[in-house]
Structure formats: C-alpha cells, structure tokens
Amino acid sequence: MHQRKFGRLQLCTALTVAGLSLAAVLGGAGTATAADLTSNEQFRPAYHFTPQQNWMNDPNGMVFYKGVYHLYFQHNPSGNQWGNMSWGHATSTDLVHWKEQPLAIATDDQQDIFSGSVVVDKNNTSGLGTAENPPMVAVFTSAYKDASPYKGLQAQSLAYSVDEGKTWTKYSGNPVLNRNSANFRDPKVFWYDSPGGGGYWVMAAVEATEHKVVLYKSGNLKDWTQLSEFGPANATGGLWECPDLFPLAVDGDPANVKWVMVVNINPGGVAGGSAGQYFVGNFDGTSFTSETTKPAGALPAGTSLAGFNDGTYNGWTVSNEPGNPKDGPFAGAPAAGTLEGQNGVSGFVGAGLVNSFNDGDWPVGSMDSPEFTVDSDYLNFLVGGGQHPRVSEKLDNTPPPGDLLFNGFEVPDGSTLADAGWTGTGDLEPLFQPATSGGDFYIGAKRINTFETGGAPGDDRQGTLTSPSFTVTRNFMSMLVGGGHRAAGSGQTLEVQLLVNGNVVRSLAGDDAGALNWKGWDVSEFAGQQAQLRIVDQATGGWGHLTLDHVMLTDQAAVPRSDETTVNLVVDGRVVRTVTGANSEVLDWASWNVSEFRGRQASIRVVDNNRFGWGHILADEFTASPRPATPRVQTYDWLDYGRDYYASVSFNNMPSNMRIMLGWMNNWDYANNIPTSPWRSAMSLPREVALTQTASGPRLTQKAVQQVDGLGTKESYAEKRARSIPAGTHALPAAAAGDVQRIDVTFSPGSASKAGITVLGNGSKSTVIGYDKAAGELYVDRSNSGMTDFHPLFVSVDSAPVSVDASGNVTLRIYVDRSSVEVFAQNGLRTITDQVFPEPAPFQQDANRVALFAEGGTARLKSLSVTPLSQSMFQAAKRQDRNGK
C-alpha cells in the first residue's frame, strides 16, 4: 500500500483555512494536490470516480444539496479488499470533478455500516435538526457483529448531519427498523407526495434471500409501518440487493407517468455474476405493481432425451464418491427439488432433476447418459448450480510421471527444512517449515505454507525461503500451488521463483484459493544447469500467503486439475461441448448447436468435481430440438448488459426532476482480484435515465450526463463521409488513438456477419466492440483485451439485443477510460459496461490504438468521430454549478 503525501483530513482543513466556502470545499474547488500522485498509476481512470486508496463497492447516500452532489460509498478504510465496511464520501459541484472527503460513517465494535441512502429532511420531520437548519439523514443497514445484542442481524439505522453532509452522528435510538432478519438491507428512502395532499417517507429495502422488496412508510424517519412487498419476479438467480423506486414521465409526457423499480442481483445477472434489473409499472403509495414481469415460459419444442420425472435416472450410469454416507453427490435417484441445507432450488420442470448437493458441496462424482444418436440441430437443457468451468481432462490429483524434488517436503518427524539444506529470512526461516496444516489437495502430510510460519500464524508473515541447488534434468517443472497472489504494481511480492545463476527466470503464484492445484514451467532452455527454488512472501493482508507441495521435474507440461461443475457432450470419447452453472440455484436454459455431429453417437456427462463453495451442479430436461432455447434471463429488462454495472441507484433531491443513476463498476465474481492498486474499484459514469415508448412498452434509456461530454476537447479524428469497411481489421490513423476519449460511430453491417470497432489495442490485443448481424446483438469481447488471467471468470463476451434502425444502422457512443469501456447503443436503449486491463499499462500509451473491422463480408461506415476527454478526477472543478446543469 502506497502512502499518500497528504492525508484527506489535513487537505480539507487547509482549504478551509484558505477561506473557501463549505460548498467549495465539499464540491472540489481548490488545488488538486493528489493529481501528481494518481495520474500515472496503472489503470487509474481519468474521469470515473475512484478513491485515492483502498477498497470501494456500492454507491450509497447519493444526494444533491445546496449546489453539491454527495457520493457516499461502501469503503474499507484499512485495506484494498472488502472488509471493515464504512461509508466513504466524495463531493462534486458538477458530477465529474469529484473530491474525496474524510470518512463519513465508520464501522465500530457493534456494527458494520452497509448500504443505504440519504435524504434532506427539509421539514425536520425527524427532529434531528431544526427548522432553520434541517438535517441530512442517512438511512443505512447495520450489519451487527458478535459484540452486539443484535448479533447476526441486519436492521435499518439512522445517522444525521447538520453541517451539510460533512460530519455525521449515529442516532441513539438505532436500529429504527428491525425484522429479526439476517438479510434485510439496503434501504432507499424518498418522500412520497400523496395525491390528496400531504405525504410521507417511503423506504424500499430487500429481504435478499427471499427475492423480495419490502416497502415501509414513516412520518418521521424513526417509526416505520409496512406497506407491501414486491417479488419474487423475473431474475431470482442470486441475492436481491440495492433497490430503488422512482417515477418517470414516458417520453417526457407529464400525463403519462410510470414508476420504475430497480432491483440489483448477485449472482444471476444477464452476463454472469452481478447486475441490475428493472421493472416498469405503477405505485399507488402502498404497492408497486409491475407491468413487465415475465412468465416462466413453456418447454422448447423437440424430443425429450431425459426429464428425470419418473423417480429414476432411467439408464444413466452414476458414479458417486465411494464411502459417502449420503451416497453423494448424486445419490441413487433424482432429487425432487431442494435438498437438506440448500437454498431454494427453482426453474426445473416436472417432478425431478439432477442435483449434486447430496451431503452438501463436499462429495464429488459424475453421471453419464446412455448413448444416443444426434438427430437434431440443437440440444437444449436446464442448468444451474456452481460456476466452475471445465479446464482440463484431469479430474484427480495424481502427480504426473517424473522426478520428485525435496522428497515432497516429507522430512522426518522432528526435523525441518533447515536440516534439508534450505535457507531463509524473516518469518520464512526454514526451521519453521514444513507445515502440517492449511490448504487442500496437498499430497502427504507436509507442505510449505507461509501462513503457518514465524510467530503467530497469519497473512502478515513475511520472508524468503530458498532450496538447495538441483540439476534441471527434464523439460518441465510441475508443482501444487495454492494461496494468494499479488498483481504487478501492488508493491508486494508473493510468488514461487525459479533461480538459475542467481537470477529469477520463472515465477508463479496461487489464485486466492485454499485448494492447491498443478502449475508449472517449461524449463527446457535450462537443461543441465543448476537451479534453486525460492518462495518470496512480502505480502500482507488477505490471501497474503502461499502454499506449495510436490515439486517435480517432468516430461510434460503441468495439467491443472479441473475442479468443475459442468454438463458436457461427449462424442467419440471426447468432450466437444461444455457448460457450467452460474452460482445460482435457479436453473435456466442452455443450448448447444450440435448439427455438426448429426448421425453420430453421443452421450451426456454431468460432472461435480468441486468440494467447496457452489461445488454442485443442477440439470434437467435434456431435449433434442430444431431451434435453440432462449435463456429466461435474457428476456428480462436489464439496466446494463455488461459485467461491471452493479448496485446502481439514483440521486435524491435532484433539481428539475432529473433522475441520475450511478453504479459500482465491478462484479462480485472477481471484484477482490482486479489488478489495481492502491485502490480497488471505480464508479460508473453518472447516467441520466428516462422512459421511452417501445414496441414492448415503456423502457429505460440512458445517457451519460452532459457534464461528461463537457470534458471533451475538439475532435482529434473524424470521418464524415460514408465508406466501406472491407473484411479484416483496419487500424485508424494515430490521431484516433487514445485511452481517455469518447468515440461516436455509426455503421451498417452490410454483407458482413460481424462489424465494429476495437479500442485499447496494441497490435495483438484489444477490446472488441461489435455487432453480430445474425444474432441481432451488440457485443463487447474482452477475451483478448490484455490482463485477463487474474481470475478465471473475468474473460467474457457480453452481448445485448440491439436492432438496427430504420436505415439499417447501428449507432454507438463509447466512453473509453484507461481500464473501462461504457457503450451506449441506439440512443441509450442498450448499454454494456466492462472493465478491461490492457497490456502494457495504458498510461504508457502503448495500448491506445483504435481500428475498424468486418468479418465475413463488407460493412459500411457512415460516420466516426473521436473526442479526447480531459482528466476530471484529482482535478479541481472549473466552476461550481448549483443547478445541476
């Protein structure tokens, strides 16, 4: 963790002494002393909000008051991973120049401070201020700790500010609303004006595991009465979180007002993991009624291959783990639904399904269908459970053939690695190793574990441990490795190194997991040379340790064990199609195009080879079909179709009835692992949302607030005349290059099957933003975008249904900001937001090229403009804007 030259509190004090007004201090006016400290950090956005350091997640308490926009947010003031949840605070006078303020509401020994909202109590209904100086009131979730009498519960509490949001006092009567629930959270509060006059406060919060939004009313923010519940509805594949409820006029018509209910969900999003869905309907002051809830849908047409509805597996071969007391994971017959200890399973059809949760996530096994002849174009089926993809053929933990080094660390009892010739420093002195605890999938009784070393065990143990010399006699090295890793630029080192002639020639680390898995190196170039192994742990904090076992010289590359939860199609003994669950107990449709295998024999293999969280698989209704089934999740209405727009809610107390939303630009699938330091996570751009009439009814449109476009300088590159885009990828001139810019492009797919633009490219890697004509989808492909290997779920191709306009065109507005792209299609009817981490670092200007492409034919470029955007983060606002314009 890098130390900052100036603390936030001292900076704010200095500005106050200089005589600036409170609005100017909070709004971000003054000298941007942090600019030189942050502008060249790898992946640091130029115009998206990031904290100067440490972890951030959900936006909280967003409110406009006296010319200042307040952004509070979930924050760990002590580290760069989730924990110590408190409310951070930033302010702006223009929604783009944000200034971080001192911590607003801190965790304490009784509670963590989870998400919530802030209202301006103009009439002092709460009595927490005065008529002359009404309070700002934060309504937040108290997540109670072991020391609290409410241990394990989540309830709603208040804090108040009488100095325009600068400092906060927790209300002495907390909690003000307690349902004795462990999952009651994320209150969004607003004032509701009754049609007959008067009004009251309304709270929308969630019972997260029940997939319900619960609505309450209050006259004073302290005493609450339940109004109604909404849900479950549409996407229920994960926890419901961070609700919002607000009115919007359809196409600006005040006589046609609809209400929008936003419900964020994790996991279970349309692109996987975290996402936000919304419903359009009506709110009468008591209940919200949705007009966009979708029915479950019928089975796809076709021939059933397996439905599991007769109480048997009907000829499938089941291989359960030997000796398991519950015959897990699959037992001897299909499940009827939810199993003991499991959250509610839904989305299956009929009386039974495959459910490998017998005896929980621990047991492993597989199931194979009888062989069948492929006689259709598609195989459709329902799938759920864990998201652990297939990575190899290897399902066991047996070592490869070869020569074991260091006897697998199995030193005689009573001796240490010091007796075996190892040397070390600090907490990794060899007399502390090997360890006999920690990790999973080690071999034997002993292994190196830098957590269990030195003094008291822990992630803050540091040092080095170096092996005796050995001769490289084979082409590869393989070893079992677990524990953590540290990204380049983090300022910490945590890795296993291969030394030749004292130089580090190879290195690897864990994957932030307790399970050890096979990794290794090609060492053929060092044949016959002397080498050493060195473990370096200069890491602190979460996953600040390594585990290592069974180092071998081998004649083949390391093959990782596939800890998968998958459904697979097997043809000629080879897996040719595979799919995994989405960390959800809700089954949804998956489809394989199997037309190339028509007439051949095939079978279906269901594999549960994972013992840990979400280590089970669900499957049902295998059907041979002429057409692919549409996943139900794709039929729902989503705020964004990318992987990185979550916990989005709107600002309170906005001028001119504007509705501005902002979300956390990250995904819980990999949030703790993204390669940024000393901060982790950015917020999305603030977006103005509206309702417009479509063929399906009123739907949201979104656009970045106009202040974002105000950061634009003059165009650096433009093409105003139409021209062809021939098949291939065609780099644009250097004037179009950039990693902090807005790109406006309109094109027609023409005869091309796919066409679009690539950004943040370096010649071999780039982020692809394209249109698939046959699918009718806009997509962002980040599979070759640069750094992608920090988490197995990061690689993705995210798509949104988009129709060409009446002229056959696709129009995109793309915001590029060093480590993210936000794509707005067809005037904001669809958006895709994705993080990307180009190689090399974007601030080196080596990953900033832009290109056009077409596949399978010729597309037609209609217009293109590239507008560089100036940096707004860690810069002073040019002017104050008290009207939000």
In percent, how helical is the residue content? under 10%
What is the 3D shape? Answer: globular
Termini separation comes to 38 Å
- Total beta strand runs: 58
The biggest beta sheet, please?
7 strands, antiparallel
Q: Mean pLDDT, nearest integer? A: 93
Strand content: 35-45%
Spans where pLDDT lies below 50 across 5 or more residues:
1-26, 28-37, 879-885
* Rg estimate, integer Å: 28 Å
Number of helices: 4
Structural class: mainly beta
Describe this structure in words.
Residues 1-26, 28-37 and 879-885 have low confidence and may be disordered. The protein has four helices and 58 strands. It starts with 7 loop residues before the first helix and ends in a 17-residue tail after the last strand. By secondary structure, it is mainly beta. Strand 55 and strand 56 (830-835) form a beta hairpin. The longest helix has 10 residues, at 8-17. Helix content is 3%, strand content 42%. Strands 46, 47, 49, 54, 55, 56 and 58 form a seven-stranded antiparallel β-sheet that branches.
Summarize the structure.
The protein is an all-beta fold. The protein is 3% helix and 42% strand.
What layout of secondary structure does this protein have?
Elements: H1 8-17, H2 22-27, H3 35-38, E1 54-65, E2 68-76, E3 86-92, E4 99-105, E5 111-120, E6 136-144, E7 154-161, E8 169-170, E9 177-181, E10 184-193, E11 199-207, E12 212-218, E13 225-230, E14 239-249, E15 257-266, E16 275-283, E17 288-290, E18 303-306, E19 317-319, E20 354-355, E21 365-368, E22 372-373, E23 378-385, E24 402-404, E25 423-426, E26 448-449, E27 463-466, E28 470-471, E29 476-483, E30 494-500, E31 503-508, E32 513-522, E33 530-537, E34 546-554, E35 565-571, E36 574-580, E37 584-593, E38 601-608, E39 617-625, E40 646-650, E41 660-665, E42 679-680, E43 682-683, E44 687-694, E45 697-704, H4 706-709, E46 717-719, E47 723-725, E48 728-731, E49 740-748, E50 754-761, E51 767-772, E52 777-781, E53 797-801, E54 810-817, E55 820-825, E56 830-835, E57 849-855, E58 859-868
Parallel strand pairs: 1-42
Antiparallel strand pairs: 1-2, 2-3, 3-4, 5-6, 6-7, 7-8, 7-9, 10-11, 11-12, 12-13, 14-15, 15-16, 16-17, 18-39, 19-21, 20-39, 21-38, 22-38, 23-37, 23-39, 24-34, 25-27, 26-34, 27-33, 28-33, 29-32, 29-34, 30-31, 30-33, 35-36, 35-38, 40-41, 41-43, 41-44, 44-45, 46-58, 47-58, 48-57, 49-54, 49-58, ...
